Every structure is written in structure tokens, then in C-alpha cells.
Amino acid sequence: MEAFSLPVEPFNGTWINCVNNNLISILMNHDKNFEYTPCLAETKYQLHSLEEDDRDEATENKSQAQEEGMLLLDVVRVLDLSSVLDFQTYSFAKEESGHPAIKEFLRNGYYVFVDLDRFYYPSGVDSEKQHIVHPAFVYGYNEETKSYLLIEDCMQPSKMEKYMLPYDSFDRAFASAQAPSLLVTRIKEQEEQQFFSRCTKELIKGNLHSLLLEERTQIKGIHSENSPIYTGYGLSAIKRFADSIEQRLLGISLPNFQRKAVAIKNPYFFRKSTIHLPLILYKNNWVNETAFDRLTSEYKKLCHDWELYGNTLIKLYYKSYYSRGANQSHQSEMESLRELLMGMCEKEKRVTSFTLELLT
What we know:
Elements: E1 3-5, H1 18-28, E2 42-50, H2 56-68, E3 74-78, E4 85-91, H3 99-107, E5 111-117, E6 133-142, E7 147-152, E8 161-166, H4 167-177, E9 181-187, H5 201-212, E10 215-219, E11 229-233, H6 236-243, H7 245-250, H8 254-264, H9 266-273, H10 277-283, H11 289-323, H12 328-359
Helix pairs in contact: 5-12, 6-12, 9-11, 10-11, 11-12
């Protein structure tokens, strides 16, 4: 067999992560409405913080965490698709080649995720620049060109595109990643495959409550031995970030900031996906047309404001980095961004609470 591929097209409606975007691609092949899946993810705003400590080792840990960009505002999204997708893990024997197993799973209708080091890709932003191990998505192969068929964001971060990976590049990337196993998946044949049949009011209400929930936990591991890192979840993370935005932003090194550029826009990606939430509520007859119109307007405003936040944050970092210091204009722009974030916290609470009221 010279070539084989499973049906799939890249999903770029919004960005969650490389795994979930590709899982949605699989589901959309059976029902296009699965493009709305991201707005059903359980989501929380997240902010890492270090405890105040005057010890030298604590100060060093805080400086390192700031330099790596760990202390920026982020969102955490959890999307459970195990009810519609069958997941299996295949463990490799010692020194086993990945080719036979990958091709057999593909021929049996399974899409394949395999850890690869993108340093060894023939092209892309990480090619021969940095070692980035991530779960590559394989949907086919071509014996004539001796290549695997992938959907990747290696050419442009957060944009999924079809990509051909030669077998020899795969071998080097596979060996470097030292992947112990494959994750394979396909749609469960016995399950209902329509999106709206799986969208429940209870699921959406649970996600809205989760967004409003305030939590605080301690991170174990990196940087935490001498100065604990705590993670706060909830809308208050937005206010806490606004209060300390300058020190959290300007301590990041340029290479680390460039790697964080996509993550900085995670709040925007989250709210871009929830633009579709009012339509889901309306199609299920959970809200009337008036409420649908109001919610649509509110969610679009949230998306717009988070896009403005991300673009402004990136612009401010580069302006400060290349000007090598703050000036009056910089301080004014930083203050405007802080005010935007404070307003966003209140908007998030108001819109989320209003949506919950409509569903109760």
C-alpha cells in the first residue's frame, strides 16, 4: 500500500492546545457542530505567585520564575472527550521501531499521537533551534514520499496545518523524545455522534460555577523547595495580576517571552470559543431570542477586550525591552492596561452570573 490516510481537516476555530484541537478535528469529520466543543471546556483563570520571603534563595527562585514567565495570567481548560472517543495506549518494547505499530493502528482506523522532538523536523519554528517534545498527530502515511501525514502547528504557533514528516526525520525526532508509548483514538461506534445530543444544561452550569470558584493550591517541584509557589484560581486572579502586572511582565527574558506569546493570548482564545455559547443555549431552547441577542453581544465584548489585552501586553513588553526602561508614556499605557484588567474582572463576573441566572 503506497499511501493511506484517515479523513480529517485542521481545526482552527480557536486554540486550546495541539491535542484537543486535533481531537476536535476528528469529531468534526462526523458532525461539523463539534466546532463548538471548546466552549464546553471547564475553564479557570490561573495565576502563580511566590510567597514574600527575604531570604537570598527565595529571591533567586522568584527571579527565576519571573524570568521564565511563570507568573503571567493564564487560563486552564479541561475538555473531557472520553464519552465520544475511544482512547488506547500502546507501550513500546525496548528499542522497538515506531513505524509498524503506527501504520497498523492507522489502517485499523485509529488516529495516532506520538511524542516527537520538533528540533529534528525539516522545517518549522523549532527546527534545529530548540528541543520541543510534543504529541504529534498522525493521520496517515505515504510510502512513495516516505513520509507521515501530520496536522501540526510547527510552522506557525497556534495555527494547525497539514505537514509531511519524512521517515528519517521522524526516526531522529522519535529517538530524541524517547517516547515510551503511543496514544491512539477513534470515535466510539456505539455512541451518539451528534454534538447537540451531548450538550447538557448541567454541564454548562457546572462550567460556569467552576469559572466563579476561588481556589488556592501549592505547586510541588520546580522553584518550590525554598520559596513555595502558590496557584490561585478564579476571577480574583485577574485583579491580582493587574495589581502586580509590571513586575510580573518586565522580569521575563526575551527568549522566554517569545515562547510565551501564544499563552499570553489564552484568555482571548477562551473567550473566542464562548462566543458560540449563546447559540448553544438558544438552539436548546434554554434562552429566548432577547436573551440570546444580549448574551451574544456580551460575549463578543469579552472576546474583544481580551484580544485588546493580549495585544497591548505584548506591545508594552517589547516597547519596554527595546527602550531599556520606563518612561512617562510607558507608565500611562501600563496604567491603562491595569484599568482594563480591573474592568475585565467585573465584566467576567457579571456575564457569567447572568448566564447562570438564565439557566436556573
